[in-house]
Amino acid sequence: MAKKNVSVFFCQECGNETSKWSGQCPACGAWNSLVEEIVDKTTVKARGKISDVKPTKLINVTASNEHRISTNIEEFDRVLGGGIVPGSMILVGGDPGIGKSTLLLQTCRQLCLSNISVMYVSGEESLQQIKIRADRIGAFNDKLDLLCDTNLDTIKSVVEREKPTVLIIDSIQTMYNESVGSAPGSVSQVRESTSVLMEIAKVQGIAVFIVGHVTKEGTVAGPRVLEHMVDTVLYFEGDRHASYRILRGVKNRFGSTNEIGVFEMRDTGLNEVKNPSAVMLDGRPENATGSIVTCSMEGTRPILVEIQSLVSKTAFEIPRRMATGCDYNRVNLLVAVLERMRDARANKSCGIFLGRSDIYVNIAGGMRINEPAIDLAIALAIYSSEKDIAVNADTVVFGEIGLSGEVRSVAMAEQRVNEAKKLGFKRAIIPASNLSITTGVKDIEVIGVSNVKEAVDAISR
């Protein structure tokens, strides 16, 4: 067997391998994504003849509901789709210091208290460091095994001997596979290490959690194929200097995507937030202009958030636009709609001039929402700030806005109105096309609007 070192280039987006560098990946078309690595290439004789493999008829396959292991952390179970599926592989990503290791260690504690064996493998911390963090979280029993190692062959042999129910790898970028010649954290190392852990999960039925570092763009570092290999991808969001954290599911083969779990960081670890709507609206000012409450659907959960806007005359030639927590380009689009707003009944223009004004839009509470259903709330918040009109504090607004100023229907309107009613709101301004869906909701006034001008008239009353 001949052995030699070869320089190859890997795409960080799709994992494609090429022999020379180019500005664009020939496989996925991503720009500036190729990185150079030195790998060991070996020439191996062809294997024996392929075994006689036959396909299985779909009608002969029996499907049963998968057994799930509850983490006893309600918010975590919600994002996972009801609990941990044995044999699944779950990727947890997030910024440094956001709370990934803390959440997984808390999960270890809850699983151990349910007499479920767990193995925690750390390539970044020593046993003493993990013990200090564990003492802050609470008491543990003897069901948790710790291993501080980065050699994947050693980890695999220990796992095969101990056979835990749940395995946690912190983090995948520190793992080292001796069969791969490149350094830990490289594209090939991450890809091959994940393949070994995938084999452990599927063959032995062990649920595997892997922690992934993120890039400055907010995506998991390493090849993008990593997210395709695993069953579930979870992202920890939020400012690490703030107290609230959001765990968001962006991929889940065993449950709904875009579910979120809300946690509060305290000195004893991460605490669940059972009613995030009340938390997001805590401290909302009364009779303030530019402040409107809207309802967004995060998976199957409706969450009320406050949209804040500030419009002020600019002293410069070009006005400034800034959006925090929502799409910047969407805000510019809504500003254009407000300037071209028309009264359909009078057939005349009644828009507001914002070309000499700085506009700032913020979603309070640290949430980031890209759902089009918050369009109407953003537009009315800008209008409220420009006209110095305070919207009633007991009003909730949601709806999508088209380019001609029409208000379009949104999904799950009844759940949104019910959530507003639970928190004591008395009035809801929604798309007129959703009125028929919300007829069964009582004790709250529901106003349907078909365009932005009707919505403006509704908040002015």
Features:
single chain, 461 residues, alpha/beta, Rossmann fold, Ribosomal Protein S5, domain 2, 3 domains, nine-stranded mixed sheet, seven-stranded mixed sheet, 11 helices, 25% helix, globular
Spell out the blueprint of helices and strands.
Layout: E1 3-11, E2 17-18, E3 34-42, H1 74-80, E4 89-94, H2 100-113, E5 118-122, H3 127-137, E6 144-148, H4 152-162, E7 166-170, H5 187-204, E8 207-212, H6 225-229, E9 232-237, E10 244-252, E11 260-266, E12 269-272, H7 276-280, E13 291-298, E14 301-313, E15 321-324, H8 328-339, E16 342-343, E17 348-349, E18 357-363, H9 375-387, E19 395-397, E20 400-401, E21 407-408, H10 413-422, E22 427-431, E23 445-449, H11 452-460
Parallel strand pairs: 4-8, 4-9, 5-6, 5-7, 7-8, 13-19, 15-18, 19-22, 22-23
Antiparallel strand pairs: 1-2, 1-3, 9-10, 10-11, 11-12, 13-14, 14-18, 16-17, 20-21
Helix pairs in contact: 4-5, 8-9, 9-11
Structure, explained:
The protein is α/β, with parallel strands linked by helices. It is 25% helix and 27% strand. It folds into three domains: 3-42; 67-274, P-loop containing nucleotide triphosphate hydrolases (Rossmann fold), CATH 3.40.50; 281-460, Ribosomal Protein S5, domain 2 (2-Layer Sandwich). It is built from eleven helices and 23 strands. α4 (152-162) runs parallel beside α5 (187-204) and α9 packs across α11. Residues 43-48 have low confidence and may be disordered.
Q: What is the CATH topology of the largest domain? A: Rossmann fold
The tally of strands reads: 23
Query: In what order do the strands lie side by side in the largest sheet?
Result: 6-5-7-8-4-9-10-11-12
- C-alpha Rg (nearest Å): 26 Å
Number of domains: 3
Overall mean pLDDT: 87
- Uncertain segments of ≥5 residues (pLDDT<50)? 43-48
The count of helical stretches stands at 11
Gross geometry: globular
Structural class: alpha/beta
* CATH class designation of the largest domain: Alpha Beta
Largest sheet: 9 strands, mixed
Helix fraction by DSSP (H/I, runs of at least 4)? 10-25%
Distance between the termini: 84 Å
CATH architecture of the largest domain: 3-Layer(aba) Sandwich
